[in-house]
Amino acid sequence: MRMQIQAIKPHIFHQPQRIFAPKLKPLPCDTFSFSGLEPPKPRVMTSEQKERYFRECAITTADRVYNPKEFLVWADKIDYKKLIEIAPPVAKFDGMQIEDFLAFHYKNGTQEFTKETLSCKNLEKLLAQDLISHNELSGILTTYPATNRAIGKLPEGWGEGKEKFDKVINAINNITRTVDVTSENAFTPSEMTYIVKSLTDALEKPVVCQYIDNGVFGHAIKIEVKGAKPVVLKMFKTPPAYDNGYHTHGAGAEPQIGFYARAHNLSNYAKFHFGQVANKHDFGAFYVADFIDKMPRIEKKTKMEKLGLHLMSIGDIDDSNMINGKIVDYGSSSFVVSPRAFKVAEEIVENTTSSTPFGIKTKNVSEYLSNTYKNLSDIEKIDFREAVDFIAFHAKESYGKEYEMWLRNL
Predict the structure, then answer these.
(1) Distance between CA atoms of 313 and 300, rounded to whole angstroms?
(2) Potential cystine with 395: which of 81, 97, 307, 379 (Cβ 3.0-4.6 Å)?
(3) What DSSP string runs through 311-356?
(4) Measured between alpha carbons, how far is 195 from 178 in angstroms, rounded to an integer?
(5) Among 315, 318, 249, which residue's Cα sits nearest to residue 12?
(6) 274: phi > 0 → left, psi -120 to 50 → alpha, else beta; which?
(7) DSSP symbol at 182
(8) Which of 326, 328, 127, 333 lies closest to 232 in space, CA to CA?
């Protein structure tokens, strides 16, 4: 039986409990317990055992490099304790991650492990350029384990500047370490009060929270901050390694999907604000996005949107993943068409349609497509055909018929 992916569904809750900042002590940071079918637990090792394991992996890595003897001399000089101080995630690496880490830095000529040499300085740029997969992200964070995993910006009204951003990130990280994010049940009242108090202290503004939903991969909470629009905080239950093979869902995928959608102004996605990505064994992945309610909103749409043409969409059949035409659960997202072809499709739609009081109508489709196509290079023709195919078979109602006919006659 196929596991159903649960979405963030704020509209199904009637009169949810609203919890305000209390004057209670926070919970102790030892409440983790998996319920139901437990994911495999990583073996617990002492720091001495971890270092011995690291050295053993260095020996096996020697088989992967051009000069094994030189590599072993280089690896033997690594100060493991200092390395862990600079990049704590290395202590959680499995054997393959250690080998990948060592092989890369040896081949790259890294002579000293510092915050600088172990950090990916352009993570957000990489996430904006392409839809980074679970495995690609794991590779980046394994190679550069000291990388700051926080991405995005605080919502308008939450405050500005790096200091405030870091303070909020730290508060949410403390929340994910303190409340039982692994639970299959809704957060308890005491956990909710701790969440509200933590955010109130970090933002220095009144905060109201209500629990929304609990799905397969995470918990969703609506957050209302005085002077700002409501948002949803989604905290993931497990590290990506325990996402049961769903590499387009959960901690290893959804934060970067949301970031990409925001970077490219994809209007069919609830706006992503900020979050934290995760490596294979990293807890604490989360994201904050616009809260979308079920009340219909009239929004001005582009021709592409009116035709139902979007660069990226979700493959999940659960309709509750969308509210008011906005994708609110980023899992299972992928490109409907290549970004290059989508840009061509936008130009084609602009030049072959006109707006009327009754909607959109096509004009001179075959003539425009034929005249444009004959002047393109062979490579450009490939993108052009892909763009026309995209319009023909994805546009709403009958708009695609003329484009489909042109393709058949090509």
Answers:
(1) 20
(2) 307
(3) SEEE----GGGEETTEE---TTEEESS-HHHHHHHHHHHHHHEEEE
(4) 9
(5) 318
(6) beta
(7) T
(8) 328
Higher pLDDT, 66 or 22: 66
On the 0-12 / 13-18 / 19+ scale of CB atoms within 10 A, 351 is: middle
Task: Look up residue 49 and give its amino acid.
Answer: Q
Distance (Å, whole) CA 142 – CA 69: 24
Both tokens assigned to 228: 């700002």
- The whole-angstrom separation of Cα 321 and Cα 340 is 27
Give me the helices (H) in 179-314, please.
Answer: 189-203, 254-263, 303-306
Beta bridge partners of 286: 235, 276
Tokens of 206: 């009144």
Q: pTM for this one? A: 0.85
Calculate the dihedral angle through the C-alpha atoms of 127, 9, 158, 314, rounding to the nearest 10 degrees. Answer: 20
pLDDT at 42: 56
Residue 16 half-sphere exposure toward CB, CA atoms < 13 A? 21
Q: Over the chain, what is the mean pLDDT?
A: 88
Read off the pLDDT of residues 291-343 as tens digits, 9 standing for 90 and up: 998 776 667 888 999 999 999 998 866 667 788 888 898 988 999 999 999 99
State residue 184 phi and psi, 5-degree precision.
-85, -5
Cβ neighbours of residue 61 under 8 Å, at least 6 residues apart?
71, 75, 98, 99, 102, 103, 106
Buried b (16+ CB within 10 A) or exposed e, 212-246: bbbbbbbbbbbbebeebebbbbbbbbbbbbbbeeb
Q: Return the beta strands (E) in 10-76 as ranges.
A: 19-20
> Cα separation of 56 and 372, whole Å?
61
Q: Which of 262, 278, 279, 260 is nearest to 270 (CA)?
A: 262
pLDDT of 105 higher than 60: yes
**Cα angle: 45, vertex 50, 54; to 5 degrees:** 150
